[in-house]
């Protein structure tokens, strides 16, 4: 039975405020409640089915009923909802004797007001049987209440008593893309306590009286389970409960529910009183609870040890359903999608504190839009706009409708913001354009009649990016996409300021990264300077590369792209610092265990030991906004291993294991699952690798066919 102690008929907040509150409750249970660890309960559907009642809630009573519907699948005996009114405590006159004697040598010890005193404990020596009334008369117990209760019990048992251990879930978020580096979901079991008998201990029949105002102590459960005591429960509006609890505020109410479970070596410990009574807050021999305790202590006293226990909850990796059959989900499922996206990022996005706007506000705005969207595209767009506020360049929203709108084709042209102008910076292959009408360094004025600068500005707000440069980079990429087989009309202007129109086809091109002219992957430049393009270097070519560059004075590593897993092979030949570890990754761990709330798992990259002769020359790395993720990780590894100098513009500032959230309607949202820091602990996320020498491409350099960044790196090498 679930009772709701809700006072008054005060109007609750509107549905717009109820759903964010419900999101917090749903999210807390999703990642911490033990009953949701193995995936048997469809927690998504529980929220969807409670959604109509939540949206219709206009009073605390309505909200309480809706919350009861939501939480019902958990079958949680600890669930209770109340509006903050103080619980009715046992009626106990301060200063009354704590120890009373009843017929038959039964000692009644009143522990309503606090902890037992040594005199009270000594006074129990003559008792043949005991009734210990634990029902509180004060709002809060003394801090050492449980310890003092253990000391009392130590005088009342003749063998060691093992207490239940607290057990909590630890959630680590959606599965990463490429295996685990951090920690998967798990259970955390705390150490159990053991009460040892005192030197003068003597076991006697005992009955404990408890009620619904506070959890039943673990030592009482252990005594009952060992067959040494019985429990009388005097219940009021709620059931008695045990085990760790947590509280979520919900529309002016407190919703309390299980934070974990109690376990012993042979299974879970469940609370079952030997007698359950209706509310009777009286104390003393005439009260119903004491009379029930006396009856249990009668001649038929035969408490039984409880050996059979339910199996504890079992953690199972759960793949989130994408509900692909819902091409366009219904209203409740659309709201679930917004709540689910918010929940994952609220709990598991490690760089949330670095966001420039409120994630809670993003949820409220998206929930409001979910009631007005008209089709699958508008639905996906609402989620995309919400995700854009995460400020993480690994965040991308995919769905069939969104992908069709973006287009899978590319023009094979690289465009960059150079000295405030949108210029052609590269072509993916020689066949793009006719070589006369499209040239590197051309200003891009418009695309299909739309001013190109305005086109980028229109798309940029929907791009999630760690830095402003990253936002422009990705907005340009989206601006250049279209449907394969169609064509785009580009309006260009070159150094001659003549306006030209070029029509280019959209095609699916495997390699979109710009080529670097005709420069070899490995090149020896004037001044005995080596150049290596890490965007094209393959792992199997690293040893041969070092044979070529070993005797040069400077090694320039061009990382204005994406590496192909060459990191450890490079470090094995560059680790002149003898570093054993590099960047530090942080993974959010979510648990209801108070001492571990906000916990993060920190782990360092392990740098392999040297393999072969170490390169002894200077090392320079070229970077820009295209250097992202693995490229940035390699840069941070290098700075730990060798005195590398970075030349160019800041990198993208987005690193960390990519994970993906699946949402109804086949919508997927990727994000950075780890927050990566420099080996010395400096913040990296949203900053990127900051160059020692800041230099960017220029209009004149592009049009003249020069690489301004590489040229500056060569001068820097010669200056040192």
Descriptive report:
InterPro entries: ClpP/crotonase-like_dom_sf, PDZ, Tail-specific_protease. By secondary structure, this protein is α/β, with parallel strands linked by helices. Among the domains are: 99-296, 2-enoyl-CoA Hydratase, Chain A, domain 1 (Alpha-Beta Complex); 413-505, PDZ domain (Pdz3 Domain); 522-719, 2-enoyl-CoA Hydratase, Chain A, domain 1 (Alpha-Beta Complex). It is 27% helix and 22% strand. It contains 18 helices and 36 strands. Helix 1 (15-32) packs across helix 9.
- In round numbers, the mean pLDDT is 91
CATH class descriptor name of the domain at 99-296? Alpha Beta
**Class computed from helices, strands and strand pairing:** alpha/beta
First-residue to last-residue Cα separation: 78 Å
Shape: elongated
Fold-level CATH name of the domain at 99-296: 2-enoyl-CoA Hydratase, Chain A, domain 1
Q: Going across the major beta sheet, what is the strand order?
A: 3-4-5-10-11-16
Summarize the main sheet.
6 strands, mixed
Give start-end ranges of low-pLDDT stretches.
1-15, 511-515
Taken as a percent bin, the fraction of beta residues is 15-25%
InterPro entries: ClpP/crotonase-like_dom_sf (IPR029045), PDZ (IPR001478), Tail-specific_protease (IPR005151)
Organism: Massilia genomosp. 1
Pfam families: Peptidase_S41
Domain PDZ: 401-453
């Amino acid at each position: 039975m679930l009772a709701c102690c809700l006072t008054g008929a005060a109007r609750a907040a509107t549905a717009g405020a109820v759903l964010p509150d419900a999101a917090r409750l749903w999210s807390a249970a999703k990642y911490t409640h033990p009953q949701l660890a193995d995936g048997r309960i469809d927690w998504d559907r529980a929220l969807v089915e409670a959604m109509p009642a939540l949206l219709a809630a206009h009073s605390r009573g309505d909200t309480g009923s809706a919350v009861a519907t939501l939480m019902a699948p958990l079958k949680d005996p600890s669930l209770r909802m109340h509006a903050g009114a103080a619980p009715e405590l046992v009626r106990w006159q301060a200063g009354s004797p704590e120890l009373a004697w009843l017929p038959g040598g039964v000692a009644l010890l009143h522990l309503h007001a606090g902890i037992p005193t040594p005199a009270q404990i000594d006074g129990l020596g003559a008792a043949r049987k005991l009734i210990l009334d634990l029902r509180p008369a004060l709002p809060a117990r003394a801090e050492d209440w449980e310890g003092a209760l253990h000391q009392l019990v130590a005088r009342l048992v003749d063998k060691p008593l093992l207490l239940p251990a607290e057990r909590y879930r630890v959630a680590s978020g959606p599965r990463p893309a490429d295996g685990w580096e951090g920690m998967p979901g798990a259970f955390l079991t705390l150490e159990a306590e053991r009460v040892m008998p005192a030197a003068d201990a003597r076991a006697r029949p005992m009955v404990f009286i408890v009620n619904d105002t506070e959890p039943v102590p673990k030592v009482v459960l252990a005594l009952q389970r060992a067959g040494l005591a019985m429990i009388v429960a005097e219940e009021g509006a709620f059931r008695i409960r045990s085990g760790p609890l947590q509280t979520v505020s919900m529309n002016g109410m407190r919703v309390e529910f299980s934070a974990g479970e109690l376990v012993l070596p042979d299974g879970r410990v469940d609370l079952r009183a030997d007698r359950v009574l209706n509310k009777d807050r009286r104390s003393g021999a005439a009260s119903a609870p004491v009379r029930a305790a006396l009856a249990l202590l009668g001649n038929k006293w035969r408490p039984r040890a409880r050996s059979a226990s339910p199996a504890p909850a079992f953690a199972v990796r759960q793949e989130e359903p994408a509900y692909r059959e819902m091409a366009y989900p219904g209203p409740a499922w659309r709201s679930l999608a917004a709540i689910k996206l918010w929940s994952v990022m609220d709990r598991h996005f490690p760089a949330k504190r670095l966001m420039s706007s409120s994630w809670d506000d993003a949820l409220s705005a998206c929930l409001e839009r979910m009631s007005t969207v008209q089709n699958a595209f508008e639905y996906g767009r609402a989620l995309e706009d919400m995700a854009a506020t995460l400020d993480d360049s690994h965040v991308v929203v995919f769905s069939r409708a969104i992908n069709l709108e973006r287009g899978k084709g590319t023009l094979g042209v690289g465009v960059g913001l150079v000295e405030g102008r949108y210029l052609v910076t590269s072509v993916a292959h020689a066949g793009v354009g006719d070589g006369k009408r499209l040239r590197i360094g051309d200003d891009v004025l418009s695309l299909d009649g739309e001013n190109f600068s305005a086109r980028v500005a229109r798309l940029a707000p929907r791009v999630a990016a760690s830095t402003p440069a990253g936002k422009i980079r990705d907005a340009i990429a989206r601006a250049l996409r279209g449907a394969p087989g169609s064509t785009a009309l580009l309006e260009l202007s070159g150094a001659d300021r003549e306006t030209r129109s070029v029509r280019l086809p959209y095609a699916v091109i495997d390699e979109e990264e710009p080529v670097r002219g005709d420069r070899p992957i490995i090149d020896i430049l004037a001044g005995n300077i080596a150049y290596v393009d890490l965007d094209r270097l393959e792992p199997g070519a690293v040893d041969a590369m070092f044979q070529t560059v070993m005797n040069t004075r400077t090694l320039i590593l061009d990382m204005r792209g994406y590496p192909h897993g060459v990191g450890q092979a490079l470090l094995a030949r560059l680790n002149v610092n003898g570093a054993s570890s590099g960047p530090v990754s942080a993974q959010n761990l979510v648990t209801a265990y108070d001492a571990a709330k906000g916990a993060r798992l920190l782990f360092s990259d392990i740098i392999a030991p040297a393999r072969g002769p170490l390169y002894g020359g200077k090392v320079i790395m070229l970077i820009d906004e295209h250097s992202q993720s693995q490229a940035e990780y390699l840069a941070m590894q290098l700075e730990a291993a060798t005195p590398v100098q970075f030349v160019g513009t800041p990198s993208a500032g987005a690193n960390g294991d990519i994970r993906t959230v699946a949402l109804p309607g086949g919508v997927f949202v990727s994000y950075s699952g780890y927050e990566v820091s420099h080996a010395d602990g400096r913040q990296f996320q949203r900053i990127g690798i900051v160059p020692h020498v800041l230099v960017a491409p220029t209009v004149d350099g592009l049009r003249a066919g020069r690489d301004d960044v590489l040229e500056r790196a060569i001068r820097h090498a010669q200056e040192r």
